[in-house]
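Give me structure tokens for this 207-residue protein.
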Amino acid sequence: MADLTLYHVPRSRSSGTLWMMEEVGEPYTLEVRRFDDGSLKKPDYLAINPMGKVPALKHKDTVITESAAICCYLADAFPKAKLNIPLDDPRRGTYLKWLFFGPSCLEPAMIDKMLKREDGDQSAIGWGNLDRVLDTVAKAIEKGPYIFGEQFTAADLIIGGGLRYGMMTRAIAPRPEFTAYAHRLGERPAAMRAGAKDRELAEAQKA
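Here you go.
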């Protein structure tokens, strides 16, 4: 039995961590749940994630929740995949910044846009507004092909996954640099494998 178990609902926030599992390349078990059967609110799952949401990752006796935390953990736990910036590399701080920037700035700014909650005192909002967030991301990827040049990292998965979702839902206007970046990410073999698995699982749940 694999040491890694990913608790997953197809076509949800956990789809990004499914992609990360494929990038890591280690054997894993997929524990597939669904939103409409109450299984995420049952005691067995709440013991894994008291928030009752996905993703959640179990590695031996360690449980990790929150997408960016899972990606950071996996990248450090399996360094041979070269998905992290090591602790002794001066770029480590920038790498961590982008891992946190996704869920703390990019995602909430997109949600504000989608829910039309953009009014208010921007000085009191950690992410300011979506335009400022997107300008910051655009600068980070302008040299490419990835945030850290030729090295794809978990930070690209978090930031790129957010951009892909934002453009798909039209919360983000498809700037040329974002479209090109998303296309490069989508062509990665691990991303294609994860996408195919996710589609198959979603279809199976519909049947």
